[in-house]
Amino acid sequence: xxxxxxxxxxxxxxxxxxxxxxxxxxxxxxxxxxxxxxxxxxxxxxxxxxxxxxxxxxxxxxxxxxxxxxxxxxxxxxxxxxxxxxxxxxxxxxxxxxxxxxxxxxxxxxxxxxxxxxxxxxxxxxxxxxx
Length: 131
Known about the structure:
Elements: E1 7-10, E2 20-26, E3 31-38, E4 42-54, E5 57-73, E6 76-97, E7 103-105, E8 116-119
Antiparallel strand pairs: 1-2, 1-8, 2-3, 3-4, 4-5, 5-6, 6-7, 7-8
């Protein structure tokens, strides 16, 4: 695994106030996820395995897509999973971490995913991991 990628990255840090955003999570064990959410209360999670086969190259094998709606009750966000689909696709993209700590991807990893992210201290977790 590539230590600089390990952690939680968000488009919200790049585009504050945007009506939708994507986050990326890279765990040290090679698992990860892409989380997309919209003000429309839709969400999508792509779970994947990742590694860096060469400097500046990120390889991701998407293995599960989960989607549905999120809601807020008494300050807690809940994700209501409406569908789960197995996937098996591999994506390789160029990546770099800029001097301002911004992660840039040469192209999106999946639909609804952007290409610019900043690290989030004490980052999040896959919101659908428990369910």
